[in-house]
Amino acid sequence: MEIADAKKLSQGLDDFFYKIIHALDAGKDATAPTGGSAPCDQFDVRYFDDGDFSPYNIASFSSIDGVPPDKSVPAVMRLKAYAERSGWVITRFIPADDPRKGPELAGHDPVSGYGFSVEALLDARNRIVISVGSKCVRDPRDHRR
Predict the structure, then answer these.
(1) Per-residue confidence of the chain (145 residues) as pLDDT tens digits?
(2) DSSP per position, 37-59
(3) CA 19: distance to chain centroid?
(4) Cα 73 from Cα 68, distance rounded (Å)
(5) How far apart are CA 125 and CA 42, in angstroms?
(6) Considering only CA atoms, which of 134, 131, 136 is closest in space to residue 53?
């Protein structure tokens, strides 16, 4: 498992997030991303005295509000096309085959290790929900293999 440079990991996630936003091209700004780090539960997690833990991943969550279905569905399809052209792996695609439920798309970039999930909410919320995250990494203080 890779040892993290927290600053590079965070900057990489921000860059990945903005690639997603740019590819969606939904015509509206996304809310400021929120999130943070979380322990990778599939591994034996080590907790440090300062409250940090290892291994961990980081994630950000955001949305683009006020996007009607005639704009949000094409936005998700633009992201899908961008992801495929970029060599990203699509791990889930559920088309908008129900007028109440928009498309869902998830995948990851095998080069950077960052992943994403996007869903268009076609109900009264008219929102595109976005999450991005990193792969699991070790804190430099964690010397286990």
Answers:
(1) 888 888 899 999 999 999 999 999 999 999 999 999 999 877 789 989 998 899 999 999 999 999 998 999 999 999 999 999 999 999 999 987 776 778 999 999 999 999 999 999 988 788 999 999 999 999 998 887 6
(2) EEE-TTS--EE-TTS-EESEEEE
(3) 11
(4) 9
(5) 34
(6) 136
